[in-house]
Amino acid sequence: MLLLATQALPQMREYAHPNLGRLLTPRHFPRLAETLADGWPVCVDNDCFNGYDPEAISRLFAKLLPVPSELARMRKACPFMWEMPGELIAADGTVLERFWLSPPPDELPAIPPNLLWVAVPDVVRCACGAKEHCPKEHRGERCGPRGDAQATLERFALWHTWISHLPLAFVLQDGSEEPGMIPWDAAGLTAVFVGGSDEFKLGPEAARLIREARRRGLYAHMGRVNSAKRIQYAKSIGCTSIDGTGWTTWRRANLPRGLHAAEHARERPVHWQTSLPL
Ligand SMILES: [Zn+2]
Question: 140 CA to middle of ligand 1, Å?
C-alpha cells in the first residue's frame, strides 16, 4: 500500500521507499513535471477539506496534462452522444441519408502511468452546521467534517466533462452508501477516495464500497490516516493508498514509521480499533 505524502521533490528523494508516493494539492505542487518524470506515484487531492478554491484547483489540473479541446473532452465524457447514428430526413419523411457521427479523434493526451488519480472536487460541511468544514482557528467543540454525498455528486457532475481527460477519483462521503450516489460508470473513473466523517470512514458502509470499487478494478484511497493501526485497517479493507499530515509533521521520526507500516500491512480483515483479526 502507498503512503502519499504532501512534500517537495527533495524530501521524496531523501525518504525514497517503494511504498512512498506524492500527494499534490492546489496549494503545493512545485516541480510537478519533474516528480512525474522521476517515476514517483503521483496523486492529486483537491483540498476541499480545507475550503473549496476552484481557481486554484483549475490551475493545478491545467499543469498536470495539456488541456485537450472542449470537443475532445466532451466526447470522452459523453461517449453515448457519438454512438447514435444520424439520419437526414426529407419533409415527406423519407430517409435521404444515414450516417454515423464521426468517432472521437485521437487527441487526448496520454496519461503518465505513474499519475494514478485526481480527486474531483467534493463537498465537506461541518458538524456545527457551517456550509464548509470550519478552518482550524475557528473550530469549536461541535465542529467536525461531515461529507455531503448529494452535493458531492452534483459537484462531480459539474466538473466531469471539463476534466474527463484526467484519471478521476470520486470522493466517498457520509451518504454515498445510498443507491445511485456513486457515478460508477463515469468515463475516466479510476479511483474512489474515502473522505467524510471518521464514523463513515471506519464504518461497514465504506468498507463495502471499497470492496465494490476494487472489484471494478479501481484504486481505493483513504484520507487522514495518521496511525499505524489505521494504516493496517485501511489495508485490511482493500485500500491501495492512504495519506495523513502526521507522517510529514515530524518527518524524520514519523515518515519511516509510516512507510514501514504501509509496507507490512496485510490485506486481512481486522477490527479498526483493536487490530485483532476478525
Ligand atoms: Zn464548524
Answer: 6
C-alpha span between 168 and 116 (Å, rounded): 9
pLDDT tens digits for range 11-43: 999 999 999 999 999 999 999 999 999 999 999
8 A C-beta contact, residue 175 and residue 147: yes
Q: What are phi and psi of 238, to 5 degrees?
A: 105, 10
Which among 240, 249, 243 has a CA at the least distance from the CA of 216? 240
> Distance, CA 131 to ligand 1 centroid (Å)?
9
Ligand 1 center to residue 50 CA distance, Å?
12
Q: Compute, in angstroms, the gap from residue 55 CA to the centroid of ligand 1.
A: 24
| pLDDT tens per residue across span 120-170 | 999 999 999 999 888 888 899 999 889 999 999 999 999 999 999 999 999
Q: What is the pTM of this model?
A: 0.89
Is residue 5 within 8 Å of 25, Cβ to Cβ? no
